[in-house]
Amino acid sequence: MRATSSRRSRVRCNRRWFAVAALGAFAHGAAAQGDYTLLVFGDSGTGQGNQRRVAAAMAEICEQHGCDAALVLGDLIYPRGVSSVDDPKFRSHFEEPYAVLGPFSFWMAPGNHDHRRPGSVAAQVEYGRSGRSERWRMPAAHFAVEDLPPWLHIYSLDTEELDERVAGGAQAEQARAALCGKPGWRLLMGHDPIHSSGLHGSNAVLGRYLEGVIRDCEVQAFFAGHDHHQEHLSAASFEQFVQGAAAKLRRVRKRSASGAEQRFAREALGFAIATFTQSTMDVRFFDGATGAATQIYHCRATLDDPACVPQP
After folding, report:
1. pLDDT given at position 11
2. Are residues 57 and 23 in the same domain?
3. d(CA 59, CA 250)
4. b/e string for 64-74 if b means 16 or more Cβ within 10 A?
């Protein structure tokens, strides 16, 4: 009797083990097939009404789409960044405007205004490391974005320091290590765009500096700000998204920038979301000037064909 009971017990245990294993495999497969949504915006940190209205529109869209993290594309705090980790502008120009959003990670790339003296990017890094914020994430001036799905890889640049000096060389090598040979989507983010039809225009020096990383790592898209409008351009080997209109607005030329085809451009305060699966990328632009969100553009790319094609 004891032997029979023991065998039955082992059978029940084996059945439970296979059920748990099957459930785990299903859960892993479900996670692998899931999506990941990034809120994308730049040139935001004014502490004024436009920033707060656009933030309210962001909250509306994140409630609908479930934002997992944010990419913040420079000029984080106007007009001259912050001078120390205790600077009150961290609260007035960032924490308070984005309190309407959930406490997910905001990955922060520095811009030219963050570098302006007495502004200190080091103070922004220290603030992120201090644990004072539920949102602000800046482990270094340039870094690999963390906590992403295994098929999504993003390197955040400090474009103000991208040149032939030691700091620039370190960025290129670290970007290569973070992106080259990795499966799925490989993206860059930073303040200055390579291609833009806005006031600042395209940045040929930045393009030459990054062309090796983009080519060798097969980077599919680059998200940037600096020009205060919303634009999508298709270059020869990657997609350029300009999102610098989260608080300020400037004119944009309705023609292609040098070296890229303009797919969409609009002078509209707002932001984007980029939703990824293992095989697709959907980028949506929103007008958020009134505090409510209106979709103004949508494009879709696939991993096999990463050109982001405008959708109806």
Report:
1. 36
2. no
3. 24
4. eeebbbbbbbb
